[in-house]
Amino acid sequence: MLSGGPEDYEGTGNGTPAQFSIIAGDTGTDIAIRLAEADIIKSSEAFIDAVLARPEQPDFHPGTYQLQQQMSASSALVALLDPNNVLAKTVMIPEGTIMKDIFTSIETSLEIPLADIEAAAADPASYGLPAEATNLEGFLFPATYTFEPGVDARTVLQTMVNRMFQAFDEHGIAEEDRWETVLLASVVQREASMRVDFPKVARVFLNRLTIDMPLQSDATITYGTGNTHIITTTDAERADASNPYNSYVHHGLPPTPISNPGDMALEGTVHPADGEWLYFVTVNLDTGETVFSNTYEEHLVAVDQYLAWLEDHPEYLG
């Protein structure tokens, strides 16, 4: 320590492990003060000086870090900027992900055995789900989650369910309406791609339900077959009545949710667009361009446009 400078420890610590959490929104000063309070560094001033001495402003990322007690301010700063010292784990769930793929992501990202995840999910009623729910499908909100070291499967799943309940409240979905809303939103999530189309897709399905017309969603079929990575279906699959998720044969909503919907799907389902459309088809899978039609004749023209595009892009056929 230089004479007259801030108090500082020397070296990389005394060997005693210390966990330190950076919270979203923390400034360098916030971090410095808490480091000093935890005796990880000698003084907050020394840490602030170390930050200011760098040629560029350091970028601190939220998470829990493994440090030591009584580190020099500069070594503590270096440790906090090293991603190898992060203890907290993050798992990202994209919109429309199905439950089994979420379980795989949890297993991979959080290093929780799949058997533990499945066991924790075995009693959906214990999570406060509607009585109709036979599993957690549809109720695991798609988002990015950060968990502390050693988190258990039950805590992870309950966090995701609680986040979905929060979304229900934010979208004004009453408890008695949650089941049917999630059923439809899960289909809308898989069928719509552009933000502007979510309320339109919801309206198409609601119009069909009103006149008892089959939903005719390929996404429901692929959920039933397990081929959810493929966007197209065969004539045989569309004729297979043994698949309870075949919405070409079976009328009404699918028996369970077919994905985990996000905010856009929930909002589109709760506030559908005004329109008389009965058909839609995405004519460009790269851009998400979708054509909505009132009549079957108009729809056939759009389908020809889609088939022509698909012929030029065979990689989408799986």
UniProtKB/TrEMBL annotation:
Catalytic activity as recorded in UniProt: a peptidoglycan chain = a peptidoglycan chain with N-acetyl-1,6-anhydromuramyl-[peptide] at the reducing end + a peptidoglycan chain with N-acetylglucosamine at the non-reducing end
Pfam (any one): YceG
GO biological process: cell wall organization; peptidoglycan biosynthetic process
Lyase keyword on record: yes
Record-linked InterPro entries: MLTG-like (IPR003770)
Annotated site residue numbers, Important for catalytic activity: E191
Keywords for the protein's UniProt record, in alphabetical order: Cell membrane, Cell wall biogenesis/degradation, Lyase, Membrane, Transmembrane, Transmembrane helix
Signal peptide as annotated in the record: none
EC number, as in UniProt: 4.2.2.29
Keyword Transmembrane helix attributed: yes
Molecular functions (GO terms): lytic endotransglycosylase activity
GO CC term (a single one): plasma membrane
Annotated function: Functions as a peptidoglycan terminase that cleaves nascent peptidoglycan strands endolytically to terminate their elongation.
Similarity remark: Belongs to the transglycosylase MltG family.
Protein name (database record): Endolytic murein transglycosylase
